[in-house]
Specification:
By secondary structure, the chain is α/β, with parallel strands linked by helices. The protein is built from 43 helices and 24 strands. The strands form seven sheets. A five-stranded mixed sheet has the order 2-3-9-6-4, sandwiched between helices. Strands 13-14-20-17-15 form a five-stranded mixed sheet. Strand 22 and strand 23 form a beta hairpin. The longest helix is centred in the middle third of the chain and has 33 residues. About 5% of the residues have low confidence.
């Protein structure tokens, strides 16, 4: 797609950013609304990617990207299944919890109701406004302050139920609270209201808890009893509407939404869902906006005075406003818009991408890749308050900005900087109605008002209605009251802004109320924190305990649910289940998981997997710590994964998370379009001319051979593995970075020592090795590795060393590219990448991915090749004879020499067969599929999102695929009839560089480097002997191996693996 990945940030200090997740939960208790997000955006720009509890979330504040989501690419961004599941118990399949065709159906069914005549009929507004203003007068006449937010919520409840249901909830008959109180006891008039508030608060809790919310409700859905109250309230009203509809013959003229819906559908569930969706939206938008309008008028008397004057000039002191009055009152609209800008009813929102796509920055032309099924979060609050988008006075409350040149300069130049009602096809149907209520209330007599903040979390269809309702109420209100004063003495303890806010940034320092984000009006410091999340959950230890418990419960429930669906789906696909084995003795095969994590300490490479495959065949599945893993050793099934069904088998998010701290989003740690982007960007570099240019190899080979000669002349053994790693480090860094790491300048170890202390020459190599070892330990630990890093990521400080080493090289390469006019002819990968992308993170990720693969493959294969030559002197003699005959004793080999040396290629392939550089690999299925056994015709069902593991070393050593001598080192098998019989008959039995579209880009480069070095090495040395006396005491094979099976009994070294295979404690040899 010609794009680059969205920049990824760490965010928090704990794995999965668990500390940040805790902060996001706490932010509503302790911090200013949106402050956490403001800081993140200021530090990381207007688009970045961050992992929250194992889920990637892309965060946005660029209005151009929001335009892509809400308008240009509207069909590709949905609310998504996660959000639908979260709200379903309350909102059902209504317009605000549905997507696609269902949403279109609801939209088309409801939209015709909101005609101009209906949204400008102010009789309902006037009746309820009069009742509320009378209550406010009575309270103010008593000298007591009033909770305006509670009062306006009663007003919007009464107005919305009458307009939508045709039946008033009589919320205004409930007495107003007195100072220090925040809840009203349930009565016959407010049971519906309190139950509605309860379910909205419960949804709010689910939103904040994110993934584990289902487990928090494992013993039952707490919304059910409240929904029963709501249903009991609505059912008689729907019954009555249905009876009225049966009596009426013609459609049209319905005076409320319920009657309108009943006349068009007989589905009661659909009617109730739609009513509740639109009612919640309309009521909460009105209450939220009127609360903040009156708050800002109280803190800005000059605005209040000017607005009241406009009300009196346009409408008069007692006349009822008309729609034309409201339409002509410019300052009233400016006041409303400015309130919506600083306190949008929906402070935060989220969408989910359906397909892979890109966001294009029109200023720079840079394309950012957005993978399918990725959450995209945006802060309307952050967008509305951004000085970059609204000018230096963005945080100031100033309605004039909507009337002077700033309106033209900022808003009209880019309308997507102001989206209180969203935009595009999903813009709120009720937007126009908000204007009328705002313009009706602007005349204060003398009201002491205390506030409980009431923002909203929904995009609202009902905002057209709400604009009118708010305007109408404000006009009526300001005809009666001319002064508003905040009354902080009315607030319950703990609900006013904390004292430390006075030293805060932005509006925090001047705020007189504590704004929070709830689904509906709710007193600060109430239900969410005290009743539903115990205090211990908010501690780090409590969070870990809760998370671990949730994971265990989730595994149990998920496995049961998946078993049911898999049984159904495999029947649909005409397949049978893959045989499941027990494996271990403990539940979830905990003992097997333990053995996998500790195998490198005690067992032979591949020993654990081999017997399982022998006992259970070439396809079986086993539960490891609650996760199903399919084990594959049949080359035909592997062909399905790597080639035939390549798009359906990916590395997957689990492996990506494991490798990310080192490999980022490079070619070996990406999937789908991101992988294609990296592949297409890098592949052209590996031309024939580049991979056959041996100057670099020759120079470093000469240096290493000189060091080996000096050591051998002293009579001391040498660790060939360490030496060849230095060679591959220098060759790879020079070829890829254009800058040699000078690893060969580091002295070689002496017997009994296998680690050199970090120095200026090997700090990069030392840190890189630590990171690779640590990632390997994560892979062996399987799922719980994140919990073992709860106190921090150990790779971080080493990755800083690596970045500090690479960054100056990138700087130099960028300067060279700027000085160079034409692209092409670059002699190293770094220069090549810098000339094709300006994304430094992408450059570094790609360099490290290819460098690690190239260095480790070369070092691993050459280590084991020398080991086998030492073990098989006749192979060494024959290979050396081929070298001398083909190249000579001193001449530098050419690419034609290498191509014609059949036995050399056979030795390399045989080494790769017995010791493949990557002994084990895994993939993850994207969709349900089947593996077909070509011999029996049986189809085996592979469920979506299932890990499929395959052991390259097991396939390479299988007597079934390679004949009875499969465990013997015999290069002749690549030259005699066995090559035709086994390998050529089925090439997928030999996959040291994988196969299919993802086959290693550097395969030929690796073959050339390995071949070149072996030729140069064997031109100088004719005898290799293993030197076990050079090994540290505990690095040689244990004595009990002598009685083992297969190669274990004859091995003279202890093969192990991190990401690649290596020899434990090195490969100590004597050369002559």
């Amino acid at each position: 797609m010609g794009a680059q990945p969205v920049p990824r940030i760490k965010g928090g200090k704990w794995p999965w950013n668990m500390d940040l997740a805790i902060n996001l939960a706490r932010v509503f208790e302790t911090e200013y609304l949106g402050d956490q997000f403001r800081v993140m955006y200021e530090e990381n720009g207007d688009i970045f990617n961050m992992d929250i509890l194992g889920r990637d979330i892309i965060w946005l504040t660029n209005p151009n990207y929001l335009k892509e989501m809400l308008a240009t690419q509207f069909p590709n961004f949905v609310k998504g299944k996660s959000l639908h599941t979260l709200v379903e118990s309350v909102l059902g399949n209504g317009i605000f919890s549905s997507d696609g065709d269902i949403w279109k159906h609801h939209r088309s069914m409801t939209r015709p109701f909101f005609t101009r005549d209906r949204v400008t009929d102010f009789d309902t507004f006037d009746q309820h406004a009069e009742t509320l203003i009378r209550k406010l007068r009575e309270r103010c006449d008593s000298g007591m302050p009033v909770d305006f937010q509670e009062a306006i919520t009663q007003f919007s409840m009464g107005s919305a139920t009458e307009f939508l249901f045709g039946h008033c909830a009589h919320a205004l008959s409930v007495p107003l609270s007195y100072p220090g109180q925040s809840f009203t006891a349930e009565t016959e008039h407010n049971a519906f209201t309190l139950s509605l508030q309860s379910v909205l608060d419960l949804i709010d809790i689910r939103l904040r808890m994110k993934l584990p919310w289902q487990l928090n409700e494992i013993f039952g859905d707490p919304t059910l009893p409240h929904m029963k109250v709501i249903n009991d309230y609505l059912s008689p009203i729907i019954d009555s509407a249905e009876r009225d509809a049966q009596k009426k013959k013609d459609l049209g003229g319905e005076d409320n939404l319920l009657s309108f819906l009943v006349s068009r559908t007989s589905d009661r569930k659909e009617i109730q869902d739609e009513l509740l969706n639109i009612f919640i939206a309309g009521r909460d938008t009105t209450a939220s906006n009127l609360t903040f309008v009156v708050y800002l008028l109280a803190t800005h008397p000059s605005v209040l005075a000017r607005l009241r004057q406009e009300v009196l000039d346009s409408v008069g002191a007692t006349a009822r406003p008309t729609f034309d009055n409201i339409k002509d009152m410019k300052y009233l609209r400016a006041v409303i818009n400015e309130t919506l800008r600083l306190f949008p009813p929906v402070p935060f929102n989220m969408k989910e991408s359906v397909n892979d796509t890109v966001f294009t920055d029109p200023e720079t032309g840079v394309k950012h890749f957005i993978p399918a099924k990725t959450a995209c979060a945006f802060s309307t609050l952050g967008l509305h308050r951004s000085p970059k988008l609204w000018g230096p006075d963005a945080l100031k409350y100033d309605p004039e900005r909507w009337l002077d040149e700033r309106n033209q300069k900022y808003f009209l130049a880019n309308p997507f900087i102001f989206i209180p009602f969203l935009a595009g096809p999903r813009i709120c149907l009720g937007q126009q109605v908000l204007s009328i209520a705002y313009r009706t209330t602007c005349c204060l007599h003398q009201a002491n008002v205390f506030f409980f903040f009431f923002p909203l979390v929904w995009n609202l269809l009902f905002l057209q209605f709400a604009y009118n309702e708010i305007s109408f109420f404000l006009i009526r209100f300001l005809q009666q009251f001319e002064r508003i004063e905040l009354a902080p003495d009315g607030h319950p303890p703990g609900t006013l802004p904390p004292p430390e806010w006075k030293n805060g940034a932005g509006r925090m320092s001047i705020e007189k109320i504590w704004p929070k984000s709830r689904l509906t009006a709710y007193s600060n410091g109430g239900l969410w924190s005290d009743q539903y999340l115990p205090a211990w959950v908010k501690t780090p230890l409590g969070f870990v305990v809760l998370t671990t418990t949730c994971v265990i419960l989730r595994v149990v429930l998920t496995n049961s649910w998946n078993s049911y669906h898999r049984h159904r789906d495999l029947k649909r696909m005409g397949a049978q289940p893959i045989p499941k084995i027990k494996g271990g003795k403990w539940p979830w095969n905990v003992d097997i998981a333990y053995r996998i994590s500790s195998v490198s300490k005690t067992e032979y490479l591949g020993e654990l997997i081999g017997p399982m495959c022998e006992e259970n065949g070439d396809l079986f599945h086993m539960d490891i710590l609650g996760k199903d893993i399919i084990w594959v050793t049949n080359p035909n099934y592997i062909k399905e994964m790597l080639a035939t069904q390549f798009p359906n088998f990916i590395k997957g998010p689990s492996l990506h998370a494991t490798l990310e701290s080192a490999l980022g989003t490079g070619i070996f740690n990406s999937d789908g379009e991101a992988w294609k982007h990296h592949r297409s960007m890098t592949r052209p570099f590996f031309t024939r001319d580049r991979v056959t240019d041996f100057d670099t190899f020759d120079r470093h080979a000469e240096t290493l051979i000189r060091k080996l000669r000096e050591r051998c002349d002293s009579g001391m053994p040498v660790d060939f593995q360490e030496a060849i790693t230095q060679f591959s480090m220098d060759s790879a860094t020079e070829f890829l970075f254009g800058h040699c790491a000078h690893a060969l300048s580091t002295p070689l170890s002496y017997p009994g020592h296998s680690t050199i202390a970090p120095s200026e020459h090997n700090a990069f190599a030392h840190s890189l090795q630590f990171v690779l070892d640590h990632i390997a330990s994560r892979i062996r630990k399987k799922y719980p590795w994140q919990l073992s890093e709860i106190s921090g990521d150990p790779t971080r400080q080493h990755m800083k060393v690596i970045s500090d080493y690479i960054n100056p090289m990138i700087d130099a390469a960028e300067r060279d590219v700027q000085a160079k006019k034409d692209v092409g002819g670059e002699d190293n990968l770094l220069s090549y990448l810098v000339s094709r992308t300006a994304d430094r993170k992408a450059v570094q990720d790609e360099l490290l991915n290819i460098f690690i693969a190239g260095r480790d493959t070369t070092a691993s294969n050459l280590t084991f090749a020398i080991y086998f030559l030492a073990m098989h002197p006749h192979v060494l003699a024959r290979l050396r004879r081929e070298i001398l005959d083909s190249v000579g004793a001193t001449q530098r080999p050419t690419v034609d020499n290498i191509k014609n040396m059949k036995y050399l290629r056979a030795v390399i392939n045989e080494t790769l067969r017995l010791f493949p550089s990557v002994p084990f690999n895994i993939k993850e299925s994207v969709r349900d599929t089947v593996f077909t056994n070509l011999e029996t015709g049986l189809k085996y069902f592979v469920p979506a999102k299932t890990t499929c593991a395959f052991s390259t070393i097991e396939i390479h050593r299988s007597t079934r695929f390679w004949g009875p001598d499969a465990l013997e080192f015999d290069p002749d098998r690549w030259l005699d009839e066995r090559n035709q019989k086994y390998f050529l008959a089925n090439p997928f039995i030999f996959i040291p560089f994988l196969a299919g579209p993802r086959i290693c880009l550097g395969q030929q480069f690796a073959y050339n480097e390995i071949s070149f070095f072996l030729i140069r090495f064997l031109q100088q040395f004719d005898r290799i002997k293993l030197a076990p006396d050079g090994h540290a005491p505990d690095t040689l094979p244990p004595l009990e191996w002598r009685n083992g099976a297969g190669r274990k009994s004859i091995e003279q070294i202890w093969p192990k693996r991190n990401l690649t295979a290596y020899s434990n404690g090195g490969l100590w040899v004597r050369l002559s």
